[in-house]
């Protein structure tokens, strides 16, 4: 053969390859939605999208064409808030559904899950696509999820991770995993959980578990290898589809900002106020000007107290008309001090949105703020609202740039957090543009905020598993849980655990940096021994295995330290003493409920402790759990006792105003509706695991009834006789609806079905839509009751 060997250069696919691999030769899409027809998107879905958007934007087109989204490739999309990222996940999900696959959308909060679920149901239900959700609430449809009876499922990170741990087949059912707000992977509180979930996906690839991963994020700094770890095509944009002005306003009244082209500009936005120490001297004239121009405004404050105070002085100062529709929507709400405060603010056209409000109260405010010609012109809120609830506002105002991390501690916002909040201004499809205003004290403070935040770049990504304070024990317990369920696995050793951890983002980052393994053998060995000593693992010649207790804990959201604390207390309890107050009080020993902090009198904590522990003892609290209530801080026992008592009263159907009054008997100037609701909410999230631990330690204990009712009672604040109804009606009825039914002895489904409309409607504040839902729920509860009488099948023996 003369010369060098020359291989042919393939410049296009042939007809046989195209027939076998059509996804690789799909025509590029353009902005026109109709161009998606060639990718198999059904016309009924295109019509539904056309009601929401006129066309695809550049980000979406690039993700399809360059990112090969509709060819099934993994993608990592980073773009500013309001860039249409969620639509990218929907595109992948609809493609998967067309091919017979299922998609899971993972979000960081329950509120986001419920909002997304409602929108997906409206959009895709008419197209024949089934949407389900799971957040740890009564409305969860876990059986359908585990049986694969869905097209789209929307879950929180934690709920999906727990289900995937306990049900290894679940990941095999899923074709697409959409992770919204994937920047959460660097969050100190939740990042490790999200990283663990993604590590599970990577580690199970050898088993054929390889769903398409669609990771959606706000603008990030250096990716730190996240893209290569996910094997994802990166589509990164910094421009917004609608313009945003972003800057600082000081006492001189000058708004120093970046314009839509990211060039520095200045504008005399309000009159100079002169030197001032009060933020309201800037906020009031600024908001008055903006509202006078017809704008809606959102103001972010760092604490609930500052939020309520700001809303009050704006309502008093602006002279706006009352938000009549919003006030009417709250007419039947459960009275409390915070609700009375909200009503006063709404009378002045201003609302606030904080965790102290009941779920239905927050939803009412959100719905009314979105409504056309809304009477709510100003909404003051804490940063929890910035995590994605889709509210339109032309202007966002930020005051503090730190958030509380404890009773007296704060931490500064990261640049990424600030940018996410600023991006709430001018939402795509809802407003034409946006403006973000940072309130500054002038001089050095204004310059610092300008340079550090307005001009700042988002931080580089770094795995939270590299944090020296990371909870390694909980991580390793979950790793053992997943690794031990792999097909063909007969026993684990330390090397297997380390090999599994090598799939983590932390290990990937260390390899890229040429740094040591983040999980050295000595550390892994020591932690595994601790887990054996705690009774969560067993170890013998055959390897490492989960104990029954370890199985329950690994599938829960509890930290190992919490589970050990609960198990230590419950182990000494006599099975007959495992009543509801003992279970509820044991739940207060967990770290996961401590974010609910009922106020405790700092000087009179002993008196408070005696009062509320006495109430728990009156209900039969078991001695070993009582003995476990004190903690490292002197007020810990009082806090735990107040949370437990609040839960007991809440489940008994005591009106929230009465609970508030009794919780604050030693602090009459405070209000506590929010603390009471938060206590019930946090306890509801862990009570199932506490019962599982009790069952494991005391197999003969009679806990079935408590397991059936406690979670539902804690979620809705209702007595046990209403549980069957609430399991069917869910949040369609609010707490006041349920309690009015109970007050009229309308708790039995058969009685409700026999009752006339004019008897039921007063219990539902005259709402005919709720009446229809109530009757449907009562019918389902009646028909679903287990009324089997085995005596009808076989009479009792007489010999």
Automatic annotation (TrEMBL):
Segments forming domain Helicase ATP-binding: 66-238
Stored Pfam families: DEAD, Helicase_C
Q: Which SMART domains match?
A: DEXDc (SM00487), HELICc (SM00490)
Name the keywords, alphabetized.
ATP-binding, Helicase, Hydrolase, Nucleotide-binding
The Helicase C-terminal domain, residue ranges: 282-481
Read off the SUPFAM superfamilies from this record: P-loop containing nucleoside triphosphate hydrolases
Gene3D superfamilies named among the record's database cross-references: 1.10.3380.20, P-loop containing nucleotide triphosphate hydrolases
Protein's UniProt keywords contain Cytoplasm: no
Q: Which GO terms fall under molecular function for this chain's record?
A: ATP binding; helicase activity; hydrolase activity; nucleic acid binding
Question: Which InterPro entries does the record cross-reference, listed alphabetically?
Answer: DEAD/DEAH_box_helicase_dom (IPR011545), Hel308_SKI2-like (IPR050474), Helicase_ATP-bd (IPR014001), Helicase_C-like (IPR001650), P-loop_NTPase (IPR027417)
State the superkingdom. Answer: Bacteria
Q: Which CDD domains match?
A: DEXHc_Ski2
PANTHER family registered for this protein in UniProt:
ATP-DEPENDENT DNA HELICASE HEL308, DNA POLYMERASE THETA, PUTATIVE (AFU_ORTHOLOGUE AFUA_1G05260)-RELATED
Q: What is this protein called?
A: Replicative superfamily II helicase
Give the species this sequence originates from: Micromonospora purpureochromogenes
